[in-house]
Amino acid sequence: MELRQLRHLIAVVEHGSFSRAAEAVHLTQPALSRSIQALESEVGAAVLERNRGAIVPTDIGHLLLTHARLLDTVTRDLDRDIALTRGLELGELRIGVGPYGGSALVGPPIGQLNFAHPGLRLKTILAPWQELPDRARARDVDIIVVELSQVQQMEDFAVQGLTEHAMVPVCRPRHPLTLMASPTLADVFGYPVAGPSLTPAFASVLQDLLPAHLRAQQQKRGLLAVECDLSGMLKDVLRHSHAISLMPAFMVAAEVAAGQLVCLPGVELGLRVRFGCAWLKAGTLSPVAARFMELLAEHDRSLATLAVPVP
Fold it and tell me: How far apart are CA 144 and CA 53, in angstroms?
């Protein structure tokens, strides 16, 4: 039997129909059917059957699928490792980033990498941070850029951290808080909080930061009044509401400079966030990925010294 036939079996089971699977593997439906029939001839048994209208694997089909998926992963890894030896001129890099902090960091390093090595193929895959480790495990991406607490406890990932960034309260200009000479934490958290979906660790830290008289209220209604993982949309929410958000200064530098948002003065949260790169320990870190991480680290260090004006 051929790996190509096994991949066709995987496609039919995953897509649930011959027509959708044929489209996915770029074959006509009759050609895909012939490939499955040839596989069945080799094993001497049916590998698929219809159950209440659905196409499902037989017992033999389940056995083949288990090994087919392992073979497919190993083969893709081999192809990938061979491609990586081409170096910085003909390689490829797939970067998984979250729609919040990761996406705010990777643009300049990707641009620099493309400028220096235009023969590279660079692809970014945007996904919620909760999905990124699984995207790496499925070999959809080579490296992920995340807030470190999201992956540090995962034993199958290697991690390279970046610089710590202080979190600052952000709101719209002419927000009532901007009229106070020295707003307190109680003043700040008296307004709705908007932000991305929180890791359990960060939610716990944020809960402890709340003034005691607000904790019960926040526990009842939740820490976030507006949960939004898209940084651009979150900034729009701030511009059109009394909500506040906690962000690294570099994420709002452009909006602050344009007068669209402000960072509150004199409010020390004591919160730090640290992003980083993570990749599977079992994988091969390519020269392209290593160079990307170098450029990302340089860019991140430059952001750490960024001074954002306050009102």
Answer: 39
pTM: 0.67
CA distances from 229 to 147, 193, 267 (A): 13, 13, 24
CB 7 within 8 A of CB 74: no
Assess contact for 41 and 83: CB atoms under 8 A: no
Q: Which two tokens stand for residue 17?
A: 């129909």
Q: Which two tokens stand for residue 2?
A: 């051929």
Q: Which of 195, 189, 179, 207 is nearest to 265 (CA)?
A: 179
Any residues with CB less than 8 A from the CB of 142 and at least 6 apart, and which?
80, 93, 94, 95, 136, 279, 283, 286, 289
The Cα 176–Cα 202 span in angstroms is 27
- Name the pairing type of β-strands 121-126 and 92-97: parallel
Which tens digits make up the pLDDT trace of 6-29?
A: 888 898 888 888 988 888 888 898
Query: Tokens in use for 125?
Result: 């895959």
Token pair of 161, please? 């951290």
CA torsion 195-196-197-199 (nearest 10°) is -90
Summarize pLDDT for 50-91 with one digit per residue, the tens. 887 788 889 998 898 888 888 887 787 776 666 555 555 557
Tell me which residue has tokens 């452009």: 254
DSSP label at residue 179: G
- Tell the residue number behind the tokens 């509401």, with chain if given: 241
Residue type, 236: D
